Amino acid sequence: MRSDLPTVPLEAGAGPDNPPCPVCGEPLFVWVDLPVDTGLAHRCEACGLGVMGKTGTTADAIADLERDAGEDGVVVFENKASLQSFVTGGAWSGLGTDHAYRFTPESILRLIATRDQVLAETRWMPGKGILSMWQSGINMFTFGHNLALGAFGKAVATPARKPWRESLDLFITVVLAVPSMLFAIPIELIGGLFRRGGAYRVRFKVL
Ligand SMILES: [Zn+2]
Description:
Elements: E1 28-30, E2 41-44, E3 50-52, H1 58-65, E4 75-78, H2 83-88, E5 101-102, H3 105-113, E6 117-124, H4 126-139, H5 147-151, H6 163-193, E7 199-206
Antiparallel strand pairs: 1-2, 2-3, 3-5, 4-7, 6-7
Helix pairs in contact: 4-6
The structure holds zinc ion.
């Protein structure tokens, strides 16, 4: 890697094709290598936020984050900055949700700071993380996405477009069910150890 190249500030990319990140204001970049047919997606190089489709305002991002919050204010999110997301790339099962944004711990910290909040509690969810890593491992070999977790209502599935591919996907899912789990457990445990787990539950409090 050449070190004499000038560093270009992120702001230099701002323009109609690079709308500002609703969390940190830096320009968003087109997110390539997505297997799911999501249309145009963007991601923020600064806070890590992923944006599926058209991006919105900071309030939109907060509403999306808290959409499924419990009455106790607990928010569960799948970590886009997780080890499993890094390892499986476009096959990461966390991409297959009906949320508009994919959050990272950094993007959440910045987002709640806009309303003077901080984290009151962060808890890693190893069971959920192992399941999503398991599904991500299978996704690497199937035409469709999130077929097993989708069947149980735990993720949004995107089936293959042709019947023969769907049949093959079912076969692949069954064959890989056990091997994928053998990888999923250590990867998620290592991820959790380094604060790069696949899923966390968080609660906020006012400063
Ligand atoms: Zn950002």
